[in-house]
Automatic annotation (TrEMBL):
Catalytic reaction list: a di-trans,poly-cis-dolichyl diphosphooligosaccharide + L-asparaginyl-[protein] = N(4)-(oligosaccharide-(1->4)-N-acetyl-beta-D-glucosaminyl-(1->4)-N-acetyl-beta-D-glucosaminyl)-L-asparaginyl-[protein] + a di-trans,poly-cis-dolichyl diphosphate + H(+)
Protein name stated in the entry: dolichyl-diphosphooligosaccharide--protein glycotransferase
Start and end residues of each stretch annotated as Disordered: 766-787
MF annotations from Gene Ontology: dolichyl-diphosphooligosaccharide-protein glycotransferase activity; metal ion binding
Similarity field: Belongs to the STT3 family.
Gene Ontology CC: endoplasmic reticulum membrane
InterPro entries in alphabetical order: Oligo_trans_STT3, STT3_N
Keyword terms: Endoplasmic reticulum, Glycoprotein, Glycosyltransferase, Magnesium, Manganese, Membrane, Metal-binding, Transferase, Transmembrane, Transmembrane helix
Ranges of Polar residues composition bias in the record: 775-787
């Protein structure tokens, strides 16, 4: 078989240049794809903020743009958590707000007059493109350019990330996922190059992540775990030290500058692992330094002394650590962190955390919905990371393992799993296509150049494979990058220059590349393309249908067409136009942010959930009979009560379905509220078999007041699919003032207390004494609603 001509260096450089241009063009298309697939919500509905938390972020961004950064840091918001209020600058992660505010300022400086709301709506799609590019950079450092491009395509469309980054989803995760991936990229880049410049950039990227999201603790624990893994497996080097030590020192100091974090960056248990590994890596570095200066005998003596002193120091440090941690009832851990380490902790001790739907464990269909075929590619990607193993590939494996565990505990953390799944799937698919395309090229070359090879003669195979190795080397394939990045063992530790020269001069020592039959290669390629097509179809459907609908504007399809339910904005508009500016509105905490942002009215509790006692007070009022509930709301200066009811239209996320969480949270602070009193034989019922406590609760009455008028007296609840138990009743202390078109939001006003009439009729002393005695008895027997 004829041996092809060796590649021309000029042709090779031209090929590399054209490949670089093509790579940048593909990355541009990936960015366009990531942005465009997330604007279905704007195309199908309108440019509007989604969900609940984004409305608070939008309101804070408006304040920042209008009043400036200094007023933002010192802003005391008296329209939330009445009568306590809230210091916004010290209790909010400012990364998202500062990013959107800076983007608005930059666009307006270019005479592009966009509103603050428009900038907030499109912030998440813009940063999704940045996240895809960061994924490319990270995966390229692990396994090369091909894997990086594939992983970037996956991340641009993965439904799990789309759910938190559609246009209008103005939440912390919109920018935090980009910061997470970019921090990991800079860590791996520093690990591969040993550059102090990238180490400094890594600390700054970590600072941006701390400003953006409380999930920064995932970074500050995953990177120490990887550094410790490298030390234990004998892969310590100066590059590992440069990648880790500056991050801990600079990153911790910068994190302490964020007001919401402060000294928690050094005093909470979530950060102690990083400090422990910081001490260990310095001990290891000192040992390597001493080993290079002393003889073997003196080194053993020095190690003995060092270990003895180190043990004493470690015991003292552990004792101090135990003393500090033991002073906290949660041992220095936050409630959400303990919920991740012990999935049953929240349901036992902190029902306010367990009541949030996104804090529940996911189901198996959730994985198929959110990452689809990536779930099947991840195991292959893990195997590919071990061929060969390197510091970067071991980090990718550790990332996927930890993210799989956390996503199994809390469905919200499927968002953290998505980048890891895309990276591993990109590596797997890239390696697979590498084998398939090589096999097709090799078989076609044999088919046309040597149509009748001698059976059993492997010389042609060897020459073709050898030629393929030459071609891969001169075309700048990723084989050399992997060799340079992978760490050699102690036995074969040499300079990287010698490794490269050995590869160039002795190609015979290259391992033989896998070549599959032509039929199998073509069939597998077609199968992968078909699976990829199904993945694209699923992602587009998820972006257009499953995750594009804003929760504040609901839609449903029926036999007579599309129905739009705009009851939330209708109710907030009524509050804004028909109530006084200083009126207080009570509702369950889910609707606090929207009420403040859209109705501009003071609320008792909101989605920040920082004060469990205040939320329990509202839950107790909703769980109590009408008169005690009225007294509680009067003590809080409440004038209006808002409840969400879905029994008429079938909206399942209403307050009746959330009512048991109100009972549990209220009963956690006020013991007279007991959950069994609201259950019949352990079942939650609202029909004729419901308990008297349930039927007389304020939430039941405010939800079902006049409900029988909607269907001719039956009172059939379409969510619970049963007739209500108590149909015809009247309210004595609350007055209905507004109900939306589809009965989804109902607003009631507290009736004023009755005037006292004194001494108009003369009564005998006996009757007065008798009346005063009865009043005293009733006051004594009246239960205190606060206990």
């Amino acid at each position: 078989m004829a041996i092809p001509e060796s590649p021309n260096p000029m042709k090779s450089s031209l090929r590399n240049a054209s490949g670089g241009v093509l790579c940048y063009f593909i990355l541009l298309l990936i960015g366009v794809l990531a942005f465009s697939i997330r604007i279905f919500s704007v195309i199908k509905y309108e440019s509007v903020i989604h969900e609940f938390d984004p409305y608070f972020n939008y309101r804070v961004t408006q304040f920042l743009v209008k009043n400036g950064i200094y007023d933002f840091w010192n802003w005391f918001d008296d329209r939330t958590w009445y009568p306590l209020g809230r210091v916004i600058g010290g209790t909010v992660y400012p990364g998202l707000t500062l990013t959107a505010g800076s983007l608005w300022w930059f666009l307006n400086s270019l005479n592009i007059p966009l509103s603050v709301e428009t900038v907030c709506v499109f912030t998440a799609p813009i940063f999704s493109a940045n996240a895809a590019w960061a994924t490319y950079l990270l995966t390229k450092e692990v396994k090369g350019t091909g894997a990086g491009l594939t992983a970037a395509v996956f991340l641009s469309m993965v439904p799990s990330y789309i759910s938190r980054s559609v246009a209008g989803s103005y939440d912390n995760e919109a920018v935090a996922i980009f910061a997470l991936i970019f921090t990991f990229y800079l860590y791996i880049k520093t690990l591969n190059t040993g550059s102090l410049f990238y180490a400094t950039l890594n600390a700054l990227s970590y600072f941006y992540m701390v400003c953006s999201w409380g999930g920064y603790t995932f970074i500050i624990n995953l990177i120490p775990m990887h550094a410790l893994l490298c030390i234990v497996t004998g892969r310590y080097s100066s590059r590992l030290y440069i990648a880790y030590a500056p991050l801990i020192v600079l990153g911790t100091l910068l994190a302490a500058l964020v007001p919401v974090v402060g000294f928690n960056a050094m005093m909470t248990s979530e950060h102690f692992a990083s400090f422990l590994v910081f001490i260990i890596i310095h001990v290891v570095a000192f040992v390597y330094y001493v080993k290079g200066m002393l003889s073997l005998r003196m080194f053993k003596v020095a190690v003995t002394v060092l270990v003895t002193i180190g043990m004493v120091v470690c015991v003292a440090a552990v004792a101090v650590l135990i003393a500090v941690v033991a002073a906290s009832p949660t041992k220095g851990w936050s409630g959400r962190s303990l919920s991740l380490l012990d999935p049953t902790y929240a349901s036992k001790y902190i029902p306010i955390i367990a009541s949030v739907s996104e804090h529940q464990p996911p189901t198996w269909p959730s994985y198929f919905m959110d990452i689809n075929v990536l779930a099947f590619l991840v195991p292959a990607g893990i195997v590919a990371c071990f061929l060969p193993i390197s510091d970067a590939s071991s980090f990718a494996v550790l990332y996927i393992v930890t993210s799989v565990y956390f996503s199994g505990v809390m469905v919200r953390l499927m968002l953290v799993l998505a980048p890891a799944a895309c990276i591993l799937s990109g590596i797997a698919l890239s390696e697979c296509f590498d084998v398939l395309t090589r096999s097709i090229k090799f078989n076609l070359y044999n088919l046309f150049e040597n149509p009748s090879p001698i059976v059993g003669d492997s010389s042609s195979d060897d020459s073709a494979v050898s030629e393929k190795v030459k071609y891969d080397r001169h075309s700048g394939s990723d084989t050399h990058e992997e060799v340079l990045k992978s760490r050699t063992s102690k036995k074969y530790k040499k300079k990287e220059k010698d490794v490269v020269e050995k590869i160039v001069r002795k190609p015979k020592n290259e391992k033989r590349l896998l070549v599959l039959p032509l039929e199998a290669s073509i069939f597998t390629t077609v199968l992968i393309i078909i699976l990829g097509s199904f993945y694209v179809i699923h992602c587009v459907w998820a972006a257009a249908e499953a995750y594009s609908a804003p929760s504040i504007v609901l839609t449903s399809h029926s036999h007579d067409g599309l129905h739009v339910f705009d009851d939330f904005r209708e109710a907030y508009s009524w509050l804004s136009h028909n109530t006084e500016v200083n009126d207080k509105v009570a509702s369950w905490w889910d609707y606090g942010y929207q009420t403040t942002a859209m109705a501009n009215r003071t609320v008792i509790v909101d989605n920040n959930t920082w004060n469990n006692t205040h939320i329990a007070t509202v839950g107790t009022a909703m769980s109590s009979p009408e008169k005690p509930a009225w007294e509680i709301f009067q003590s809080l200066d409440v004038k209006y009560v808002l409840v969400v009811f879905g029994g008429l239209v079938g909206y399942s996320s209403d307050d009746i379905n959330k009512f048991l969480w109100m009972v549990r949270i209220g009963g956690g602070v006020f013991p007279h509220i007991k959950e069994p009193d609201y259950l019949r034989d352990g079942q939650y019922r609202i029909d004729s078999h419901a308990t008297p406590t349930m039927l007389n609760s304020l939430m039941y009455k405010l939800s079902y007041y006049r409900f029988v008028e909607t269907d001719g007296g039956k009172g059939f609840d379409k969510v619970r699919r049963t007739e209500i138990g108590k149909k015809n009743f009247k309210l004595t202390h609350f007055k209905e003032v507004f109900t939306t078109h589809h009965w989804m939001v109902r607003i009631y006003m507290l009736k004023p207390p009755k005037n006292r009439i004194r001494g108009k009729l003369k009564k005998s002393k006996f009757s007065l004494k008798k009346r005063s005695t009865s009043i005293k008895d009733s006051q004594i027997s009246r239960p205190n609603p606060w206990h």
